Amino acid sequence: QVQLVESGGGLVQAEGSLRLSCEVTGRTSSSYAMGWFRQAPGKEREFVGAISWTGCRPYYGDFVKGRFTVSRDNAKNTVYLQMNSLKPEDTAVYYCAADPASLSRNSDYVQSWGQGTQVTVSS
Q1: How does pLDDT run across 12-26, given as a tens digit for each residue?
Q2: Are 37 and 105 in contact (CB under 8 A)?
Q3: If 0-12 CB within 10 Å is exposed, 13-18 middle and 19+ buried, where does residue 57 land?
Q4: Distance CA 105, CA 71 (A)
């Protein structure tokens, strides 16, 4: 089991950028697949993007369309979500997620969650 702590959320204007960070602690944290989900009020939790423990071939939700990038620094036990060209519809609580195997796009199958960080995009 690993523990996840997100940071970097906040208020940003449309077309702005934010970078979220998620520090991972616990046993063999570097061998976990990591990623991000988000949840807007009244909506289901939605897959944003994920990356394997090797850092190769990140994959994204369909809505991302090149605006977001997931990366990781295993030396710092940290995974990042760089968000560019933000839109008001990106407003949500963003959750860091981890799994010892590959990270599913279905939130029902995610093993570990962070507490979430709020991102608000104003128009």
Answers
A1: 999 999 999 999 988
A2: no
A3: exposed
A4: 17
